[in-house]
Model the fold of this input.
Amino acid sequence: MSTVFRVDSEATVGLPDTRRSPVPFEVFTERHLEKIPQLEALPAERVREMRVVASVLPFRVNRYVIDELIDWSRIPQDPIFQLTFPQRGMLDPADFERMASLIDRGAEKGEIKTLARQIRTRLNPHPAGQQQLNVPILDGEPLPGMQHKYRETVLFFPSQGQTCHSYCSFCFRWAQFIGDKALRFSSHEAGTLHEYLRRNRQVTDLLVTGGDPMVMKTRHLEQYLDPLVAPELEHVQTIRIGSKALTFWPHRFVNDADADDLLRLFERLVNAGKHVGFMAHFNHWREMETPVAREAIRRIRDTGAVIRTQSPLVAHINDDADVWSTMWRNQVRLGMVPYYMFVERDTGAKRYFEVPLARALQIYRDAKRRVSGLARTARGPSMSAAPGKVEVQGVTEVAGEKVFVLRFIQGRNPDWVQQPFFARYDEQATWLDQLRPAFGEKEFFFEEEFRRMQGGGS
Done:
């Protein structure tokens, strides 16, 4: 049986219909595929393929996504179906066949888990050196559940937020959700977080991330965020909250039992002089079309928080300029700020979702040309690579050589930021490590220093 969580709410006179009735929160994982009624209409082979892939990569979807967001008449092309349900192409063909063989013959769970671990280790579970290079130190001890890659910004992974209302099929944090504690970032130490921030006054931004911190009860989130208004933490000017909840469970902000408490928390932080940035992950314009999603957006904005939107550009979901231009226009109309177009990270099911950098740049430019200036705030295409966030600015010809024009938006060394550099044009390249320096150079300008940061000398 799937687990059912019920959300209590009181019908309140004068509020929109989204507040009148409690909505059941029902979650399905790989163990409950046969419980999803809509899958009964699909070919048995497609459901079998889902089961095989879900034995390797995490799968979780809720009833709101199934009933309100997916157009089941457009399966398998529907973008929200691709966003949330396993697809055969997400695994290497040989790995798929090996796992399918085990499942088809009814192999023991231990044998299936062993093969799943083997496959996962080849899927780069922690990209960009995040387990080795980003962990901060306090009094000589590493701080689990935190990352400090860029000087001004600390990432915090609260232990109560290390899941999501549903899982994105392309998620670069997939390793958080497979039950392997060695691959998980999480911390329940609010005091340690606040002490680290006190001692590092160069930090201006705290990003609370996950999983999804919006799966947490408000009382837990308050323990982490309310102390940030103390005078000794005045230098922490911006509190960012990374979340997919506006897509996967907008009722969190409308009629969950502690929805009003959550919004009052945002309002307290804003009134105390903090900038609250709600970093919303929208991958397709369809995600913000439901009445409850729009009501959730309105309620968050009424607290004084600013909703900024971001997404990777991913095949099968949004690799189309019309999708992006429509998404950006709708976001601006609803009062949100387009922030980033990311390149799909080199992890997990990248082989299924990746888009060549040259095509990503063309989609970005075509989408930008179709919107007004207020919707042109999204930066990209941007690769969150090990040295930093690298933006593909364009393609041009210099001294007879066709090149990519690149620059750092953020860098492990702040001096790298905004420095342009050039890579040989490669129509097939999908990530920074596949690019080679232009003009006969042996390496990019930052590489020697980055090797020293990694402990590799010169």
Summary: Residues 4-121 form one domain.
